[in-house]
Write a structure and sequence with these properties.
This protein has helices at about 5-10, 15-50, 85-90, and strands spanning about 60-65, 70-75, 80. The protein has about 90 residues and is of the alpha+beta class. It folds into 2 domains: about 1-50; about 50-90, no CATH class. Strands 1-2-3 form a 3-stranded antiparallel β-sheet. The chain is rod-shaped. It binds zinc ion (ZN). Zinc ion binds next to loops. The site of zinc ion has 8 residues, from loops.
Length: about 90
Amino acid sequence: MTNNELIDVLKNKKDEEFITIIRHFKNRIKQIEKKEKLDAIDKKFKEKGMQCPNCKSYWCVKNVFKNNKQKYLCKDCKSSFDALRNHFLH
Ligand SMILES: [Zn+2]
């Protein structure tokens, strides 16, 4: 079945059936969008090269600057670490 044929089938469904089907796919769209968002965040932080030493997530942001060290905060597991420690682990 082509996409156009599928769309025609959906168009000809009764309102109730149509809503049931579309509701089902709405959840899937939400999941895909959520994954895309998370992937985009992951990619962005991957490019910066800062990885959490605890959970390996790249979703890390600059936290405080203390004792001449930039501290980072992992948004995934909430652990705090500094860049130096991160570099030693790699
Ligand atoms: Zn983490």
